[in-house]
Amino acid sequence: MNKWKLSFFILLVINLLFVLLITSLLFIPSQKPSEKVNHADKEEIAVPFLISTDKKSLTDLINHYLEEETDQENLQYRVELKENVNVYGVINAFNKDINMALILEPIVKPDGNMQLFVKELSIGRLKLPVSYVLKYMNTNYDLPDYVVIDSGKKIIDINLDQLTLKNGLSARAESFNLKEDDITFQLLVPLP
Q1: CA torsion sign, 8 to 9 to 12 to 17?
Q2: Residues with Cβ within 8 Å of residue 86, at least 6 apart in sequence
Q3: What Å distances lie between residue 161 and 61, 124, 126, CA to CA?
Q4: Which of 9, 27, 121, 151 can pair with 131 through a Cys bridge, CB separation 3.0 to 4.6 Å?
């Protein structure tokens, strides 16, 4: 066979192999498609937003939420944020409504929940033993599930991780410095 013919056939075979290789690469999928996110996993995902506020705005929000979520017939109280967290209310003792005041020092726990240390408790003008009154409140009032009272340690825990608003939002405390008016929360917005 002629040298030119042989070269031509070799070149033809190389071209055919190249065309076959390119064609096969075009029709072979490049990668396996990524797994879709499971719907159950999506429900647990929340997008965090950092929210800063001042004492007055947070006072208004807390009091509005307390009016909406608590049984105001049995337990009437309001919150004021000043140098401390001040809770004013009315309790029924001896078949009479008596004014009550709680002075609380807020502490942000590492898990984003709040802890309130009871500095002072008075009914009328009489200062009472904190542990006794906290025990009385814990047994006689229907407090929300996310509020836990430890009367022995004079502590009220506000478990924000157990508090979910009607629209699915939840919160986590970042800072709560009332003296500096530095109040920051992380608002967790669930993905649909």
Answers
A1: negative
A2: 79, 80, 101, 102, 103, 104
A3: 18, 34, 35
A4: 151
**pLDDT single digits (tens) 35-70:** 555 544 444 688 888 989 999 998 998 888 777 766
Tokens of 68: 């909406």
Answer yes or no: are the C-beta atoms of 137 and 118 closer than 8 Å: no
The Cα–Cα gap between 55 and 106 comes to 13
pTM over 0.70: no
Closest by CA position to 134, among listed 106, 100, 179, 178:
100
User: How many structural domains is the chain composed of?
Assistant: 1
Contact 89, 78 (CB under 8 A): yes
Range of the domain at 149: 55-162
Q: Report the candidate in 122, 88, 121, 85 with the shortest Cα–Cα distance to residue 106.
A: 85
105 located within any domain:
yes
